Amino acid sequence: MTRSRVWKNRLFKAAMLFAMLVAFGTLAVLLVDTLITGWPELDRQFFSDPPSTVAEEAGARPAILATLYLGLLVLLLSVPIGILTAIYLEEYANRERWWNRAIEVNIQNLAAVPSIVYGILGLAFIVRGIGVGRVVFAGALILTLVVLPTVVVASREAIRAVPDSIRQGAFALGATKWQVVWRQVLPASIPGMATGSILALSRAVGETAPLIMVGAIVYVAFDPTLFGAYTALPVQIYNWTKQPDPTFQTLAAAGAIVLLAIVLGMNAVAIFLRNRYRKQW
Amino acid sequence: MESPRIDSARIAEVSRGLERDEIERREKVFAVNDLGVAYSGKPALEDVTLDVHKNTVTAFIGPSGCGKSTFIRCFNRMNDLIPGARVEGTVLYHGADLYGRDVDPVDVRRRIGMVFQKPNPFPKSIYDNVAFGPRVLGLKGDLDGRVEKALHDAALWDEVKGRLKDGALGLSGGQQQRLCIARALAVEPDVILMDEPASALDPISTTRIEDLMHELKRDYTIVIVTHNMQQAARVADMTAFFSVVVDDDGSARRGILVEYDTTAKIFTTPSDRRTEDYVTGRFG
Fold first, then answer.
1. Does B146 touch chain A (CB under 8 A)?
2. CA A252 from chain center: how many Å?
3. Is there a domain that residue B110 lies in?
4. What ipTM does the predicted assembly reach?
5. A58 and A115 in a common domain
6. pLDDT digits (tens, 9 = 90+) for A94-127
């Protein structure tokens, strides 16, 4: 009786350990393989030269720059819109009105829509409809749409974590609604909002599908401008992996390392912010 | 058995309260007439009529669910913040209708301060907590002096004067509550509402808050909700006893005002049997 209980305990522990090893082992193998393959290619030329049909001369400068531009633009577009939306929904919207409830449900659903759908929409409405064209700005708009629901949801969580007693205390002193939001709720929820926004942004930086739809093209030999043709790092990587020359595979690995570094760097900032401004109540 | 059990200690406790004619000589700060509150159509409190006089402490006592907290929130229009809350009847504040069409609740709250049941300091420094009110109201003048005076008046200055920049959440519960009182005082209100201000505190902190109320009533009018009858007896000049009535089918419960009189009268010779049962501990 006791023996079988002890064995069950051990068996279950072993099963969990195995599951964890499968998950992380696979990741670790992929990571190490990519690092070993790509590391030699990470020289000055990779960061300073445009792509080329000759593998030995190819670099990723336009792609890296465009990815950084896209990240910055998405940040500037999605964070203010997302935070203001979250404040409206949490602090101002009257939940007894059906349209506010409809907006809420839809935002949650939008967060689950595959990004390729946004790509198709973007192609129809932004690139062709408004006629922005296949430019960096159009790509940033699409990616903003992709991450906006996530930013809104994360910001709402952060606002909701502020205890109501804080709002009541401020109201009781004669503060207006705006003063309560601006001076109490927002400062208290900024760490949560920042964390959520950065994580959403790191998703945007890694997106490929919608950018292919809205025309991130592959051979861009010049630095990107706001309203110029562009490529992005994930698209560039994707394209290199399709080339027959095996040297391009190593270039793809190098690109993957750079993309990983950008994403991990952003996540590190998010973790830092979260720990720095720990909840105080 | 028939007469309420009255011990000398209780009479000693209530002896600090003012006499009735002395209280009624003072200006009426609030005149409540036939007030009722309903949440989403369900009545929570009905038919309350009473006056609150200047520079007195008025206590609301009663069992849980009797609507005393709901009632105190009518004085600074905090019920406005609850969706679905409806207030009927009138509350006159120095003769003006508190719920009049052109009255902005924000203006009401800057003159009628409130201290809550659970200390709720803002996650900011001690100084910024007290300075918050003057800052949002755009009060001009010496902010440092104002903060110092408020902390003095709340009997907290000596404990925090060396660490005004420290976080308010590092203070003890009792200190946090006195900080919340200081925060309310900093905007120089006319009235201070206290919703069970000592219920989350230890006995020593409770005594300090009660002593403070005796000090504060010289300059302010104080209205306090408490579930602690001894506390009401110790601090209040006037006491209102609220009770709960349940519909015949047991479905709806709502609060009513049973009796309102001087604290001495309520605790020694109440007119209503229900008050007597409550203050002698036979009910509630």
1. no
2. 21
3. yes
4. 0.88
5. yes
6. 877 888 888 888 888 888 888 889 888 888 888 8
Q: Of A36-45, B15-24, B239-248, B255-264, which range is least confident? A: B15-24
Number of domains in chain A: 2
Contact B184 A168 (CB under 8 A): no
- Taking the C-alpha atoms of residue B237 and residue A62, their distance in angstroms, rounded to an integer, is 79
- A68 and A6 in a common domain: no
Sequence-ordered list of residues with C-beta below 8 angstroms from that of A233, at least 6 positions apart, any chain: A60, A63, A64, A66, A67, A205, A255, A258, A259, A262
pLDDT at A55: 73
Say yes or no: A239 and A141 in one domain. yes
Number of domains in chain B: 1
Shortest CB distance from B136 goes to which of A95, A173, A280? Answer: A173
What's the domain range around A258?
44-276
Residue range(s) defining the domain that contains residue B54: 8-120+188-279
Option in B83, B107, B133 nearest A94 (CB): B83
- Predicted TM-score (pTM) above 0.90: no
Q: Please check whether residue B173 touches A, CB under 8 A.
A: no
For A38-78, how does the pLDDT look when each residue is reduced to its tens digit (9 = 90+)? 888 888 888 888 877 777 777 888 888 888 888 899 999 99
Same domain, yes or no, for A32 and A60?
no
Domain containing B43 — which CATH number? 3.40.50.300
Contact A175 B83 (CB under 8 A): no
Q: Is A150 left (phi over 0), alpha (psi -120 to 50) or beta?
A: alpha
Write out residues in chain A with pLDDT < 70, as ranges: 1, 216, 218-219, 278-281
State the smallest CA–CA distance between residue A91 and chain B in angstroms: 11
pLDDT in tens, B148-161: 999 999 999 999 99
B118 to chain A: which residues are within 8 Å by CB?
165
Indicate if A36 and A160 belong to the same structural domain.
no
CB contact under 8 A, A174 and B106: yes
In a domain, B162, yes or no: no
Which CATH number is A112's domain given? 1.10.3720.10
Residue A281 domain flag: no
Range A237-267 burial, b when 16+ CB lie within 10 A, else e: bbbbeeeeeeebbbbbbbbbbbbeebbeebe
Q: Which two tokens stand for residue B77?
A: 């229009």
